[in-house]
Amino acid sequence: MSQTSASARAPSALLAEARAYWDKYVWHHRHPWTRRLHRMGSWTCIAGFTATGLGYGWWWTPIAVAIGYGFAFTGHWVVERNRPLTFENPIRAGIANWVMFFYEMIFDVERDIARLEGDPPTTDDMGTQ
Known about the structure:
By secondary structure, the chain is mainly α. It has one domain. It is 67% helix and 0% strand. The chain has helices at residues 11-27, 32-53, 60-80, 90-106, 109-117. It is globular, with a radius of gyration of 16 Å.
C-alpha cells in the first residue's frame, strides 16, 4: 500500500518540492518594486498584529492584513503584471512570502533571480498575463 500524503514522502522529495516552489515564487517576484511592496505589506501586518497584541483593538489585525495584501497585489498587477500565487495556493504562498521577507534581510535574492534567468521556471501555471 503506497501513501502519497506529505508525511509519507521522503524528506529529500519534500525539499526538492520546496526548492522548486521557491524558484517559482522568486521568479514571480523578479522586479525589485514588487518585493518592496511585499515588504511594505509584511511590515503593515506586523504593525497590525502588534497593535492588536498591545490591546489597541482586535480590528487592527484584519485591517493590516487587508492593507498588506493591497500592497502585495499592487506589486503583482501593476508592476509584474502577473497573477499572485496566493490564488493558486494561499498557504504555500503565504509561507513563501514570510521566507522571502526574512531571506532578503540576510541574503541577496537578486542572486537567485540571476540564477533562474538562465533556466526560468515554466510560467504556464504561474498566471502570467
